[in-house]
Amino acid sequence: MRTPHPILLVCLGVVFGCGIDALMKYVMQGATSVLTATTWRYALGSAIMLALFLQARRPFPSLPAIRFHALRSLAQVISAFCFFYSLTQIALAEAVVLGFTAALMIAPIARIILGEKMSPVTIGASLVGFCGAALAATAETSGAPADGNRLYGTASVLASAVLYALNIVLLRLRTREEDSLTLVTFMNIFPALFLLPFMLVFTDPLPADGAWTLLTGAAVFGIGIWWLMTMAYARAKAQTLAPFEYTGLIWSALLGYFFFQEIPGWRVWAGAGIIIAACLVVAFETHFAARREAKLPASDILT
């Protein structure tokens, strides 16, 4: 069977990601707390991935690798918790748009951790992108959570974006040493282990009636995203595929409208346009810089 085109895989992965957000938002609108929903999303994903990991007979990671997975997963789980919390405070499309700023935060974090240089173009584009985020943050969305706090929601999603970018940078350090099955397995196990004690102490450990199916769906979607993205980025350049991840704005707006009666204002769309343009500038500049360092011509940048 022929593998689908990488662009199709990325677009499908984006749909899965927006599906997780919508499912989690729906679950948390009921009697299920953010902590309970997030914990079970990872616990169910852990059960699925651990079964696949054991069946594949993959070697267990070394102790240094385990420590690394634990550190990276800490950033991952706090990022996920902050994002899911933001969904209870602001509209789905608004959270997704502000989440796009994670792409702008990767460069400065990589500069600190990996020593990668930042060009003036990258710095300027990042500042412009954050201006777009500020514009989107001032938007008024019809149908947004009536009792939501925009300040808390915006701060949460931006904190989530910072930690997500940190997670991506740390993940770069392991992708050459471990396969995707091992990575995805521990990307579910450690967050579940981190969250479980807090759930048992601070909230009702059982989700509301009818939430189990939705949480299982969110866990499956979470696993599916990484499989799809891994297959896609293994077959095509990141610069070619990255722009299609912004289709998430379309899907989040549609899901927000049909399931939560949310209608984003013009500032959300304008802010999204600015953020996306800034991200593309950073992506092109990064690619140009890599070619300059390798002493390759820029004329075939799109090949």
TrEMBL record:
Q: Which keywords label this protein? A: Membrane, Transmembrane, Transmembrane helix
Where it sits in the cell: the answer is: Membrane
Where are its TM segments located? 7-27, 39-56, 68-87, 93-114, 121-139, 151-171, 183-202, 214-234, 241-260, 266-284
Which branch of life, at top level?
A: Bacteria
The UniProt entry, under PROSITE patterns, shows: PROKAR_LIPOPROTEIN
Q: How does it sit in the membrane?
A: Multi-pass membrane protein
A single GO cellular-component term from the record reads: membrane
Residues forming the EamA domain are: 7-136, 153-283
Main localization category: membrane
On whether Isomerase is a keyword of this UniProt record, the answer is no
> Would you indicate the residue range of the signal peptide?
none
- Family per UniProt? Belongs to the drug/metabolite transporter (DMT) superfamily. 10 TMS drug/metabolite exporter (DME) (TC 2.A.7.3) family.
The molecule here is called EamA domain-containing protein
- Species name for this entry? Hyphomonas polymorpha PS728
